[in-house]
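User: Hi! Is it possible to get a structure for several chains at once, not just one? Here's what I have:
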Amino acid sequence: GENVEQHPSTLSVQEGDSAVIKCTYSDSASNYFPWYKQELGKRPQLIIDIRSNVGEKKDQRIAVTLNKTAKHFSLHITETQPEDSAVYFCAARSSGSARQLTFGSGTQLTVLP
Amino acid sequence: DAGVIQSPRHEVTEMGQEVTLRCKPISGHDYLFWYRQTMMRGLELLIYFNNNVPIDDSGMPEDRFSAKMPNASFSTLKIQPSEPRDSAVYFCASRGRDSNQPQHFGDGTRLSIL
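Assistant: Yes, the chains can be modeled jointly so their relative placement is included. Here is the combined structure:
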């Protein structure tokens, strides 16, 4: 089955700096890679996703890059703000018979004012 | 749409008691997922349904856990008997038919077994 590894587990940045979170996956058949943000005590919420037919996707201050050859994808947050502080999860889904997402272990991002 | 609705939001009960968690998926979504979240193990998929049929329950930790989906708008996750190690946040999520659609999570049930 799919295995997703996420790094780092914690990340602190100064407000205004950029933050990068990286994930690797094991199943080369995976073709869908969402990122979720979970604030304390809240539900995970999708912030951006990418499919294997594109290499990069941007949405305002958030971007995701995908390297299918190396089987890794990354989340980039620019001009970080205190409200970006949360746990971020990457996930991957195989195009095979499985329909579920495999989640990474999460990254606690803290943006220091 | 109101999104995925879970109840209760919080549950505190003594070990040995039966616990029932409830989920109403987004209308029209064909897939429903139950997850458990703990600090130690992160987000774990327990079971998922497609068109009310359980597809993969390999994540269900043991026979004390069971899940049903009697119709397209309702699912339950039961723990009987409950144990302190079952304490966690349980999330329900749903997704449309297209495999490239994202999963939408409910607010979760915070379960504490004393």
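Chain A touches chain B through 22 residues (CB under 8 Å). The radius of gyration of chain A is 14 Å.

User: Great, thank you!
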